[in-house]
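Hi,

I'm pasting everything inline rather than attaching a file, because the server keeps stripping attachments. The sequence lines come first, and each chain or strand is labelled.
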Amino acid sequence: MKIAVDAMGGDHAPGEIVKGACQAAEAFPQLELILVGREREIKPFLPNGSQPGNVVIRQAEETVAMGEHPAQAVRSKKDSSIVVATRMVREKEADALVSAGSTGAQMAASLLGLGRIKGVERPAIATVMPTLEGGKLVLDVGANPDAKAEHLLQYARMGSIYAERILGLREPRVGLLNIGGEEGKGNDLTQHAYPLLKASGLNFIGNIEGRDVPYGRADVVVCDGFVGNVLLKTAEGLAGAFFEQIKEKITSSPVRKLGALMVKPGLKEIARSLDYAEYGGAPLLGVNGISIICHGSSKAKAIRNAVRVAKECVQSRFVEEISRALRPADR
Amino acid sequence: MKIAVDAMGGDHAPGEIVKGACQAAEAFPQLELILVGREREIKPFLPNGSQPGNVVIRQAEETVAMGEHPAQAVRSKKDSSIVVATRMVREKEADALVSAGSTGAQMAASLLGLGRIKGVERPAIATVMPTLEGGKLVLDVGANPDAKAEHLLQYARMGSIYAERILGLREPRVGLLNIGGEEGKGNDLTQHAYPLLKASGLNFIGNIEGRDVPYGRADVVVCDGFVGNVLLKTAEGLAGAFFEQIKEKITSSPVRKLGALMVKPGLKEIARSLDYAEYGGAPLLGVNGISIICHGSSKAKAIRNAVRVAKECVQSRFVEEISRALRPADR
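And the predicted assembly:
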């Protein structure tokens, strides 16, 4: 199995990306890792001497920066690492791609290069959110800021397949992110989506509210891309703000400093449980190929786990699963 | 100045409500507190003997439960505590009302009983969110789940007045809650709202993302009622889940238990900084009178602070301020 890794994408590219890819190559010797990007910038980060035999470099001269207009950049930069990596998947030179670069560019490249699965109206960016009950899937977190009720239904179908196949959650509980518990609550979108989900045959548990998400009350949280993005980034910001405050407050006196040392392992466990890097990344659901989106600030560990996710996606053949579940006849 | 308090509304009514109102009566002897509800249920909670002289009871036989359909309940239950308290404000028997009961019912009662300020298209529920930089205003958090760009502009105007007059924030920085920093990002609503806010003459700092909110990067966060409600409840849920985890992880061994004792004061400080009760409540902005909405789980302290907020709202005459700022000629 071949996994293409966008070596130039992300806040810590290419160093951490290359490092993570090499770790994955060692962890999964049956894989072939293809580092896509500028060879001269990638080479220095390869473990000299001990470079894994299952890591190769695919030269791509250009890069797409975070600021650039995604669609324009992807159209004009045919030799950028994200475009080349995506093309390799389309042309079956790779089974999946992993990138921590501009999410917009990765989405544009996937839509242009791989296209949508037949029957899928809108792809969705799924993300695995840490909760008290482990990682749960939230989608869409930004692919489609103005969604229709039918899109949310498709997100629920795609998300359920992912949660079952990759997160290993049996009969995943699908929750509609809403502002009240009862049916009929919410905005125009959720009021229309509710009956569709109710009739979907999925394990729909009804509306869930923002406060339910961190407690893991749903395995698959469905919402439009605007709301999901706000939810995700708010959670990130709050976790960061919490830890800042804790660091400050539990070290503000000698006694507290001593206590801090004693509880540190516990706090570390919490930090680990909140670490998105554990989940690596999540695919752009609905495109005709496996394109794993990683957090822009991904380091080696996140990339290594993202490669694992890509591998599991290929093995579980969930692109075929989704096309079966969403084939037009179904709708 | 007379403040009507819905003694029957809230998870801890009437006990905590009565207690909080009496505390406020003592703290602000110049106020007259009017407890609205069933006298026989209120009386037992009055400090026997030492009942403050500036606390009176206004009999209201009915109550509106959380589950009930707000508008229907308000129309049919003319003698419910929330309807009576609102009527007292309309008929100038009280200068403001405070309730921790059903937000929907309070909103319906305010709209029917007080009406909208001339020029206000949609009232907004504002809430003060604790951040690393102190309490910041977020609105709308649920009054109007399907907002138009013009509504967001009005929220920004009303919120700025509140932030300046009640939160004491000079030239409050208004942020548009969005899913990207640059102008042009977002969904249809935010794309249309951005230019309106830019041209508003307010201290508009542009788009802010979910992760900026906990850091207090804006003093007034403007969003539609659906997104605001998700943001607020997610923050509540995360804070709760976080403290649960901390409690568990820092007491899971004897050493950690000891350390926990030493850092406890620090954690308490954080909990206090996150305590909505400190802010008491926030008004329904845009209605023609002062109606302070409290968290359903409010206890005495939150009610006491809500009465203070009500008092400050009356003193700052911000209803007049808003009607000046939003008078049709302005638009």
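The radius of gyration of chain B is 20 Å.

If the labels don't parse on your end, tell me and I'll reformat.
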